[in-house]
Design goal:
Length: about 130
């Protein structure tokens, strides 16, 4: 399997886990599920970098990853708002913080849609 396909497989696993959380009806899985939406987007962007034979940086900031991807295609910047929305979930759902409000099902649904758009965008560019 080509390296970029491995990254896409992992991205799809993360988004599938997030969808399970959405349909579970269990509030206890909301934070881990929404975390996986950020992870799905991150792995999709890293798939594109792998497709372009770039080294994969050990960063989690989706906006920085988009900036790297945009070196090859400026259309990546159309994802900036989705990435900014998901970026907060990379750490905020992992650690207790007085400023963080637990996600609800609507937030998770939106995050799944945003991550899905990023995955679909990457897949489309790879197939061009």
């Amino acid at each position: 399997m080509q390296r970029h396909n491995e990254w896409l497989r992992l991205a799809r696993q993360d988004i599938a886990f997030a969808r399970l959380g959405l349909h579970s009806g269990d509030d206890e899985v909301l934070a881990p599920a929404i975390y996986h939406t950020q992870q799905a987007a991150e792995k999709a962007l890293k798939a594109y970098l792998a497709f372009r034979a770039m080294g994969i940086p050990k960063i989690h900031d989706l906006l920085k990853l988009i900036k790297l991807c945009s070196q090859f295609d400026q259309r990546f910047h159309t994802l900036d708002l989705h990435a900014a929305g998901l970026n907060v979930y990379s750490t905020s759902t992992r650690y207790p913080d007085d400023l963080w409000a637990l996600p609800d099902f609507e937030m998770l649904k939106t995050a799944i849609e945003q991550a899905g758009m990023i995955i679909d965008f990457v897949v489309k560019l790879i197939q061009e």
